[in-house]
Amino acid sequence: MTLKITERLIMTPGPTMVDPRVLQAASNPILGQFDPEFTKIMNENMEFIRRAFQTKNKWSFPVDGTSRAGLEAVINSIVAHGDKVFIPRIGRFGNLAVELATRAGGEIYTLDGEWGQVLSQEKIIEKMNEIKPKVVIFVHGETSTGRLQPMDKIGAAAKKIGAFTVVDAVASFMGVNIPVDDWELDAVIGGAQKSLSAPSGITPLTFNDRFAQEISKRKRVEAGVATKDSAKADDFITSNYLDLTQLMDYWSPARLNHHTESTILNYALHEALELILNEEGLENRFENQKKQQTILKNSLRQLGLKIFGDEKNEMPNMVAVEIPSNVDGEKVRSVLLNEYGVEISSSFGPMAGKIWRIGLMGYVAQKHYVLRFLSIFSQVLEQNGAVLNIKEALEYANNAYKK
């Protein structure tokens, strides 16, 4: 084999390091997409996704493609030309939602919050009731700023006015509790390459019957597989590959041929979900994410660094840190990566050059990785002009792990 990949300690908000057991699962032999052994795995993945999202939704399956494919599949399927779409924005990925809904033909309305803060649910609901949109799209885990947007009241409020909720939970999935049914959310998109710690390229999502009935009004089945009874809506979903109504047929017992399913990515998804659901346990996963984030965050504060943003509403699987004024943030990132094999992220828009984003997602949220990162990061910072309390920070971290 000529391909050689350098080992890294990936401390970004995605992609993340992958459990070796997940990589091993992905190395299994290819099966045909309708092989009974593989369709059994498909059915098990659907049940795992239901459990992960804490839902009874029949329609819980993965889309082949990165998380953006999952987002686009859901938004393209529910937003038709001229539909009112309301999008609260608190960072870069709120802007992505605007872009996707605009391309789908939506009439866009926004409510903007300051980057590093969240919007109150009351303010969102008030604006939503004023606009009366067909669709409300919001980002749960906004990794550009490290904020976690509260959303436990929005689903029920949206239903009262007949609106459909679409939630971008790409970065929060498997890192924080998302009880889809309790929060009355219509469609939620997760991510593989974040706290699930699986390879990018497959996206778990879920949507309820109410949502399924609405998008089925736009169903169109291509002539190659259509029957005389197949739907042929005039206002059809414009994407063929990302048409949820055809994917519903593909993931149902009908197994209507749509595309060639990625068998190895389904193996990886199966292993990653099973490790969390059946070995670690959801609550243990969420508790560990928060524990590791708290220790790292407080250790960085002990170093003398300032934590960015509203800490009452922060993502439990990453830390946003302000870059000291006398430090070249990009130089530090370059040294970390090229000399120590450690990767962290910068940010976007108004936060570009102002904060580092340090991920603690899934597999990397372990004591030995946190301590290794903290030791290397503090030394590199000191070598690049930062005045730090390295001894105090390392002592704090070691003592925190003894409790």
Automatic annotation (TrEMBL):
Domain of life from the UniProt record: Bacteria
SUPFAM superfamilies, alphabetized: PLP-dependent transferases
Cofactor section: pyridoxal 5'-phosphate
Keyword Nuclease appears in the UniProt entry: no
GO biological process, one term: glycine biosynthetic process, by transamination of glyoxylate
Keywords: Aminotransferase, Pyridoxal phosphate, Transferase
Location of the Aminotransferase class V domain: 32-351
Transferase as UniProt keyword: yes
A Pfam family annotated for this UniProt entry: Aminotran_5
GO molecular function: alanine-glyoxylate transaminase activity; L-serine-pyruvate transaminase activity
Modified residues (N6-(pyridoxal phosphate)lysine): 194
Family: Belongs to the class-V pyridoxal-phosphate-dependent aminotransferase family.
Protein name: Aminotransferase
